[in-house]
């Protein structure tokens, strides 16, 4: 059999039928006002705009909802904390006052640097809800003091109607369905190594409670979609014609040899 013809047929079939895995990477910026928000009054800081949730869209219209939380409840239970918009620095937070970390002064203003997301006194955090399963790959820190350590969790449990039920009222040590991805350090933008974890829900907190000097504001996040392998493509008419021609040539060659 003619090897050149075999190679030609193979090349045509690969071109006509092969599909490649693909994934897309998207970013969301929190340095402008949110697409929508849930404003709360008076919150913890009566002279500051505070939000129970904020929703941002990226350049292609995909949304992420962000909620604030902190373990300021009884026995360290997680309860609502409030997001604050910090301009070009991104999003900060306020949570319930404690004797160690007074985040609001007597006039109702958020104090410095406690209007950032921090782990001094209480452990604060931001809960991210995406429209589909994504792999969180970058946390963009718009402002930090002391250092910019973060801890990242992904929800890997069974499907739930309300993700809030898996967080609020729990403690960080008793979260069910959540996987701690790891502790990450960096001066500006910690790269998150998630080992192929994909989830609709991600939780970002400052670093370990043993290192309680993390004050950060989040300017955005970047995430990647799951790779998908498209179904085999239907060969185009031109490809089919080429295959037919190659087969006809093979038949002709064999007939000449037989003769």
Give an overview in words:
The structure is a single chain. The protein is mostly beta strands. The protein has two domains: 3-19 and 234-258; 25-225, Jelly Rolls (Sandwich), CATH 2.60.120. Helix content is 14%, strand content 37%. The chain has two helices and twelve strands. The protein has helices at 3-17, 237-258, and strands spanning 25-29, 36-40, 50-57, 63-70, 79-85, 91-94, 117-118, 124-146, 150-155, 178-184, 199-206, 214-225. Strands 1, 2, 3, 4, 5, 6, 7, 8, 9, 10, 11 and 12 form a twelve-stranded antiparallel β-sheet that branches. A hairpin with an 8-residue loop joins strand 4 (63-70) and strand 5. Helix 1 (3-17) packs antiparallel against helix 2. It is globular, with a radius of gyration of 27 Å.
How would you describe this structure in keywords?
Jelly Rolls; 259 residues; mainly beta; 14% helix; twelve-stranded antiparallel beta sheet; globular; 2 domains; 2 helices; single chain
CATH architecture of the largest domain: Sandwich
The number of helices is 2
Shape: globular
Overall helicity: 10-25%
Q: Output mean pLDDT.
A: 82
Low-pLDDT stretches are: 1-19
* Largest sheet geometry: 12 strands, antiparallel
The CATH class of the largest domain turns out to be Mainly Beta
Q: Helix/strand-derived class?
A: mainly beta
Number of domains: 2
The rounded distance between the terminal residues' Cα atoms is 15 Å
Radius of gyration, CA atoms, in whole angstroms: 27 Å
Strand content: 35-45%
């Amino acid at each position: 059999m003619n090897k050149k013809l075999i190679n030609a047929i193979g090349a045509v079939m690969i071109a006509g039928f092969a599909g490649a895995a693909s994934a897309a990477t998207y970013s969301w910026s929190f340095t402008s006002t949110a697409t929508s928000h849930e404003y709360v009054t008076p919150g913890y800081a009566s002279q500051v705009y505070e939000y129970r949730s904020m929703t941002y869209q990226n350049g292609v219209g995909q949304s992420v909802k962000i909620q604030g939380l902190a373990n300021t409840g009884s026995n360290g239970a997680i309860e609502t904390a409030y997001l604050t918009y910090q301009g070009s620095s991104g999003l900060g937070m306020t949570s319930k006052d404690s004797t160690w970390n007074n985040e609001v002064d007597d006039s109702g203003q958020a104090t410095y640097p406690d209007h950032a997301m921090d782990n001094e006194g209480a452990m604060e955090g931001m809960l991210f809800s995406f429209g589909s399963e994504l792999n969180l790959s970058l946390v963009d820190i718009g402002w930090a003091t002391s250092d910019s350590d973060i801890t990242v969790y992904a929800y890997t449990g069974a499907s739930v109607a309300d993700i809030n039920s898996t967080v609020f009222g729990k403690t960080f040590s008793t979260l069910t369905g959540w996987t701690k991805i790891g502790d990450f350090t960096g001066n500006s933008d910690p790269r998150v190594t998630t080992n192929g974890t994909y989830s609709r829900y991600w939780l970002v907190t400052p670093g370990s409670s043993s290192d309680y000097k993390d004050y950060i504001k989040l300017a955005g996040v970047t995430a990647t979609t799951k790779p998908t392998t498209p179904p085999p493509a239907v060969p185009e008419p031109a490809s089919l014609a080429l295959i037919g021609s190659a087969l006809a040539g093979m038949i002709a060659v064999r007939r000449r040899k037989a003769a």
